[in-house]
Amino acid sequence: MSSVKVASYRVLGVVLRKVEDYKLLIKFRLSLTVVFSSVMAYLIAANGPVNAASVVILAMGGLLVTGAANALNQVLEKDYDRLMKRTANRPLATGRMSVSEAVIAAGFMSLFGISLLALFNPWTAFFGTFAMMSYAFVYTPLKRISPVAVAVGAVPGALPTLIGCAAAQGEITLLALSLFTMQFLWQFPHFFSIGWLGFDDYKKAGYQLIPAEDLKPHPVIGKQALLYTLFLLPISVLPYWVGASSVIATSIVFAVGMAYAWFAWRFFQKLDRSAALRLMFFSFLYIPTVLIVLVLDKL
């Protein structure tokens, strides 16, 4: 093999490793779920034909803003990420990427991301900025102080649906607020199951996300997980009352919510790894299923 080919392979290897590091920096898969929620909410709220270019702009703006928030999160948590098995391989935690590089990348992503969202209206730009800032500079430091961080983090976590609706409708409507509330409430059982499973890892890094009792997850999280799934049920019919879904679609969404509540009930009863895993996996399905049903209902 010639020296030119060897050098080319080395350069390619460096580039590919850098791409993988940036995917880790922005939490690429998580960011895609955020973009999905925003785009689906846009499709639900849109009246008339959907402009494909608008969908692309919304998706790119959302991806960049979310990526910026996640990058800033890792800058602030790099020393703690080294202590957790789940996050120990992140580029800042391992030293493969410098803090200055990550901050510059976050700056450019936020600049271009907010600019793209601003092409819709001031609401989308405002909520995009608010989501990024509250996630990075309120939720992130609060994680080491109090379990109230879960509620605080659920606000930027639910804003993608609000942003999607605002992009389509140009204002904050009852539909936008109902989708926002659904995604807000959904996050509590979702995170309580994850927090229960990763309690020891979080404890190593000093995170206070889950109430503890005798160095173990407090049983109250089972009750709270169940209550939040029950709160979801009446909220899930709001799109019907505002004229955004049919009886059939609403019935399906309600049935999915009942299943979510059942898994939360089992978690509340058992508080073991098996029940937590089942609740966690079903929570991954809940929001995509609900949003897809509401979009298909418009066809």
Rounded to the nearest angstrom, the distance between the terminal CA atoms is 57 Å
- What letter string, H or E per element, gives the SSE order? HHHHHHHHHEEHHHH
Number of strands: 2
The CATH architecture term of the largest domain is Orthogonal Bundle
Q: What integer value in Å does the Rg equal? A: 20 Å
Which structural class best describes the helix and strand composition?
mainly alpha
The top-level CATH class of the largest domain is: Mainly Alpha
Give the gist of this structure:
The protein has 13 helices and two strands; from the N terminus they run αααααααααββαααα.
If you had to describe this structure to a student in words, what would you say it looks like?
The chain is mainly α. It has 2 domains: 24-169, UbiA prenyltransferase (Tetracycline Repressor, domain 2), CATH 1.10.357.140; 173-299. The chain is 79% helix and 1% strand. It contains 13 helices and 2 strands. The protein has helices spanning 3-25, 28-45, 52-81, 91-94, 99-118, 122-142, 149-169, 174-197, 199-204, 220-235, 238-241, 247-270, 273-296, and strands at residues 212-213, 216-217. A two-stranded antiparallel sheet has the order 1-2. The chain is globular, with a radius of gyration of 20 Å. The model has no long low-confidence stretch (mean pLDDT 93).
